Amino acid sequence: MNIRSLFLQPFLGLTLLLGLAKPDPDPLQDYCIADTKSPLFLNGQPCLNPSLAFSSHFTTSALAKPGDTKANQFGFSVTLTTLANFPGINTMGLTMARVDIAANGLVPPHSHPRASEVTICLQGVLLVGFMDTSNRLFTEQLRTGDFRFPKRTNPFSLQYGLKEPRFGCV
After folding, report:
1. CA-CA distances (angstroms) from residue 134 to 6, 130, 138?
2. Are 84 and 119 in contact (CB under 8 A)?
3. Structure confidence by residue, pLDDT tens digits, 6-33
4. Is 32 buried (19+), middle (13-18) or exposed (0-12) by CB count in 10 A?
5. DSSP readout, the chain?
């Protein structure tokens, strides 16, 4: 066997393997503002004509108001961005939410199988944590401005000891 085929075979094998692992494709256009009035049903929403785009399509105040932390037994409220209140987020692969947590409130462990969760403490102190696949527990206290972002874990958040509700964004 010559030296050329010693290098060529592994190179071709590696090339074939890398060709099987494909990430999500890049979008075909710069943005796709959701046309929420379209009768078409798609995974996501059809795009508005780009000539009808306004800067207001790329901003939202949906997360500006605190949610009702008394709405459930755990003492937290989640406010989501949607295509109705943030049409410019269509096809971006991004979801944003505001999580309000009352004093001694808890966001129970949950999962995001194909996504990361970014938790930003905007006010107060939050105990955040997650468990990895070997059941190892990681916890950290977040103060105003701190954040964390584990992927494919079961995160939780606990607000403890404060009298006034505090909030974080995910």
Report:
1. 39, 11, 11
2. no
3. 666 776 666 666 666 566 666 677 888 8
4. buried
5. --HHHHHHHHHHHHHHHHHH--PPPPPSSS---B-TT----BSB-PBPPGGG--GGGG---TTSSPP-TTSSTT-EEEEE--TTT-GGGTTS----EEEEE-TT-EE-----TT-B--EEE-SSEEEEEEE-TT--EEEEEEETT-EE--BSS--EEE--S-SS-EEEE-
pTM above 0.85, yes or no: no
Specify whether the CB–CB gap between 148 and 120 falls below 8 A.
no
What's the pLDDT at 15? 64
Phi/psi at 50 (5° precision): -55, -25
The number of residues in the chain equals 170
Q: Contact, 94 vs 32, CB < 8 A?
A: no
Residue 96 tokens read as: 């944003």
Neighbours of 29 (CB within 10 A): 8
pLDDT tens, residue by residue, 57-94: 999 999 888 889 899 999 889 998 988 999 998 888 78
